[in-house]
Amino acid sequence: MISNKENPEFLNSFLQYSSVILNKSQNSVKEYNYDLSNFFKFMSNHLGLSSEEDIKTTDIHSLDMNFLKQITLEDIHSYLYYLKGNFDSKPATIARKASTIRVFFSYMTNKENNLEVNPAQNLENPKLDRRQPKYLTLEESKKLLEVSSKTTSNESSRNTERDFAIITLFLNCGMRLSELVSINIPDIKFDECKMTVIGKGNKERTIYLNKSCMKAINDYIAVRPPKDKIKDKDQNALFLSERLERISRRTVQYIVEKELKKAGLDTSKYSTHKLRHTAATLMYQYGDVDIRALQELLGHESIATTEIYTHVANVQVRDAVERNPLSGE
């Protein structure tokens, strides 16, 4: 639950609207709360309503509508400039915070009708760098799966099946970290080789499981601790930690980092999210997957997000040129 005692009333109203009406996930609402409370703390100092040296300690719970009515587009620009200048925030981070501010002021003007003028109406996003996603090659992916299926001489074998199943699902299904840790055994339809996951925005989608995924899951379940040893609240959780409770995101990140190191891969370059990139890229390059099908599989709201995976390796581009029927002329 979000602690709202330090928030102004209008912020709590927006958070409740986002959770109940917009059906935003708890993580999204937490991000809204964090972004907007920081924005209001900065704005309180910027408008001369407080003078804290560290804006983190600024008290905002008593701010009211008169405060919001003072904010202009130029003030919002000052906040975004502050983020870039003081924290070297990346364009993507600034764009996310700008989006949150836009959504909030839209709510205050259209839903609450408390503001006559929306100061964020013409707020633009910073131009984002279009970077190609980092991903493992097919050979590197096979190497990672190979080392994950085995136990080295200096490590325990009790979690081998679990860790291999985690790597297998990442590389075959392209799921998000949050989706993987949230998998419950009842979510898996073993007879139909598929499962349901809850993605961004609390949206449910189906993920189909190939033979490798089904075998890895079944091999892990065969050695998974019995229910009577698992904490009551986590008995349905597929992946368990050493403490016999639902595995945490940090533990999964540690597992991925460990297996990457075993495979001799650069852990500063690759991560759990890069395994999602890898799955999408390999499916597009080798699986003849339609871009719309890939969008559905990855749970992207916009096709533009999926289009980053339509890049092609240089060797394939060279091969395409060589295959041109005029190449020998």
Mean pLDDT: 87
Give the radius of gyration: 24 Å
Oligomer classification:
single chain
- Sequence stretches where pLDDT stays below 50 over 5 or more residues: none
Give the overall shape: elongated
Q: Determine the N-to-C terminus distance.
A: 69 Å
Q: Beta-sheet strand percentage?
A: under 5%
Count of individual beta strands = 3
The strands making up the biggest β-sheet line up spatially as 1-2-3
Task: Report the sheet with the most strands, covering strand number, pairing sense and barrel closure.
Answer: 3 strands, antiparallel
Order of helices and strands: HHHHHHHHEEEHHHHHH
Helical residue percent? 40-55%
Number of helical runs?
A: 14
Computed structural class: mainly alpha
How would you characterize the overall build of this protein?
With 329 residues, this protein is mainly α. The protein is built from 14 helices and three strands. The chain has a three-stranded antiparallel beta sheet with strand order 1-2-3, with no helix packed on it. A hairpin with a 5-residue loop joins strand 2 and strand 3. The longest helix has 21 residues, at 26-46. The protein is elongated. The chain starts with 8 loop residues before the first helix and ends in a 7-residue tail after the last helix. The model has no long low-confidence stretch (mean pLDDT 87).
